[in-house]
Amino acid sequence: MLHIIPIPAFEDNYIWLLHNEKHAVVIDPGDAFPVIDFLQKNRLSLSAMLITHHHNDHIGGVQQLLDYQSAPVYAPQYESFAFKHIAVGEGNLVDLPEIELQLHVMWLPGHTLGHIAFYNHDYLFCGDTLFGAGCGRLFEGTPAQMLHSLNRLKWLNSATKVFCTHEYTTKNIAFAMSLEPNNQMLINRQRQVQQLREQGLPSLPTTIELELSTNPFLRCSQAEIWQNSQAVNNQELSVFTAIRALRNHY
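The structure corresponding to this sequence follows.
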């Protein structure tokens, strides 16, 4: 049985750890200490690391983890890394036999130009591209690139579990409510997420289906969002560009 655990790091990061009670795979380990602690306490062997992009809060612990236990690191072929790694890109398949899992690679420029995600029919590990009710900032890419990347994710299986790497959901929902206050699914989600966070539980994973019904960055064609977006017209890219700019200052 595969277990997927969020290991909190820094202020709001999640380092996702997948394990079968013997072997473990770690995704975007920005900090090695909590990962090593979890591995030791649960007597797990590190089998691989998966990297979505080059920001330090996603890779800062990689070398220390390699020093702790050697393991293959799969990282975007479109970016540069100082640590030893296997470069992967669009269309590649990452085989993780120790945990009996295979993940496809999708190139999703926007947050960074070389950002990738790992996915299969059941899971999406999307780094900082898609968040609960939000999306990543455009540090390197253009609005058109990010919109295209997000639109690709819309076509994944609706039941796919989405493992984002930041606990931004509460604030993202508040922003989404300013754009689409009459969305009953969004209203329900706000209440559910509030209950989870009050119990100290993560708001993640989410699902593609839930994001399609509540995430404004996947709903730019909705009339209410356009009307509240300050966009110059109702074209999808215009609305996306406008609401991404609004979210930057929210």
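The two ends are 41 Å apart (CA to CA).
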